[in-house]
Amino acid sequence: MPKISDDLEGVVTAYDEAGQSVVLVAGDDVPAGVEVGDHVLADTKAPAKKAASSKNDK
What we know:
The protein is mostly beta strands and about 60 residues long.
């Protein structure tokens, strides 16, 4: 189930299939039948690890 990003500030107001408003805040699960933009969704992938740089890298 999609989830609203934990770092969202404010609220997202969306509508379900019946036209009822749904207010979501950071960390909320997005209910079935409610669509929100990808920009407010938590990234479900694990963050990529950055390679450690050595002193020889320039």
